Amino acid sequence: MQKKEKSTGQKKTLSEHNFGTFQKGKQVTTVYMSNLQYSKNEQDVKKMFAKFGEVSYVRLMLDPKTQKSKGFAFVQMPNKIHANRAIQFYDGRQVSGRTLKASIAQDNLAVETKPFVPQKPKVPLAAPLEARAKTAKNKKSRGLAELFDYLQR
After folding, report:
1. Which burial class, exposed, middle or buried, applies to 32 when counting CB atoms under 10 A from its CB (0-12, 13-18, 19+)?
2. Domain residues for 99?
3. Distance of CA 86 to the CA centre of its chain
């Protein structure tokens, strides 16, 4: 299951090599498969989906520390009809005591995220000293109130 990299000499797991190349923006369907047995590898997942048509890419997600399967994978298939047949077949199916779940994967980049907008402070900095001292008392911080009194003198 371990392959050795020729140029660097570092060992890479099968999941770092994957099967095929990830295709983005092309007419492919990405299937999300979860609740897989932890003993499954990319070859097993590819065999499962190859029954329904061509598989262009398989990525089994691994725990970075232990390099063991997390139990879910992403599979790309160029034909949407074949991908839907595989989803219908595997979704809800019992395999080795585990109920598999299969669906079309959601694209994370399709969801727009709102830019971070910092919140305004509760008490503006230009507020009177009494308001800032009152906030300090609410936080049960007398040291800050004493500092304001000292600065006022």
Report:
1. middle
2. 9-107
3. 23
